[in-house]
Amino acid sequence: MYQAQSMQNNYLKTQVMSASPNKLIEMLLEGAIKKIRVAKLALETGKLAQMGENLIKAQDIVLELRYSINEEVESTIPQDLIQLYEYMHQRLVIANIDRDTEAMDEVQGLLTELLDAWKQISEVN
Q1: Using CA atoms, how far apart are residues 3 and 102, in angstroms rounded to an integer?
Q2: How far apart are CA 75 and CA 80, in angstroms?
Q3: Backbone φ and ψ of 68, nearest 5°
C-alpha cells in the first residue's frame, strides 16, 4: 500500500511541476471542489474531523488562488476575483464552524462556475 501511495504522490508531483500556469489554476479549482465534496460526504457519515480537515484544505486552496492573482492588471477583474475568493473563504470557514452544507454547496457552485470559465479561457489562449 505504501508503495502505491508513493507512486501516486510522485505522479502528482510530476504533474504539478510540469503544468502550465493555466493548468495549475485549473488543478487548484478542481482540488477545492473535490475537498468540499469529500467534506460533505464526511459530514453525512458523521466523520466531523475528516469534514473539518477537508474544509480547511479547501480554504487553503481558495487562499492560494486569491494570492495568485496579479493585481497590477489594468482591469476590475483582479479586484472582483479577490473579493470573490475572500467571500468563498469566509463561507468555507462558516461551513466548517456551523457544519453548514448550504455554504459548502454555494462555494462548490461558485468554484465550478469559475472552473468552467477558466477552461473556456484556457482553450482560447
Answers
A1: 38
A2: 9
A3: -90, -5
CA distance 91 to 73: 27
pLDDT band at residue 121 under the 50/70/90 scheme: confident
- Predicted TM-score (pTM) of this structure: 0.84
Grouping H, G, I as helix, E, B as strand and the rest as coil, residue 20 is: coil
Q: State pLDDT tens for residues 75-102.
A: 898 999 999 999 999 999 999 999 999 9
State how far the Cα of 46 lies from the Cα of 106, in Å rounded to an integer: 21
Whole-angstrom Cα distance, residue 99 to residue 59?
A: 14
